[in-house]
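[Q] Does anyone have a clean structure-token version of this?
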Amino acid sequence: MNQINPLHIGAFLVTLLIFLMFQLSGIKTELTEAKSSFAKSEKLAVDLVSLEAVYADKKRTRKALNRILSQHILRSAELKIKRTKEYIKISADSINTSVLNTLMGKILNGSYKINKLKIKKLNETKASLLLEIKW
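[A] Here you go.
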């Protein structure tokens, strides 16, 4: 009478097996979610590294800006350029709109950290400009 019925052991093992299968399916779901989260994080990390490579090179930024500002059309525009260790500030009280379009086309198509950009139309052919680019 003190013996355990083999049917009870079988029922216990079947119940344990079903319970473990449900646990395993839940763990598989968590694993797939973790994999997708890892893939997103990895993609974000790659994007951040590539952006850092573009924006963190101060020498390349200075060189590119000097190349832009040394163009003939911009040298004759009477731009006030102030360079510091942290940024370059380009301003003009009155600049021709075609020269302004040329400058903005070059600046906005490049990869620069623009802190301030203020353009005010003075009349049909003139505008004022304040541009600050951080190194």
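[Q] Thanks! Anything notable?
[A] The mean pLDDT is 88.
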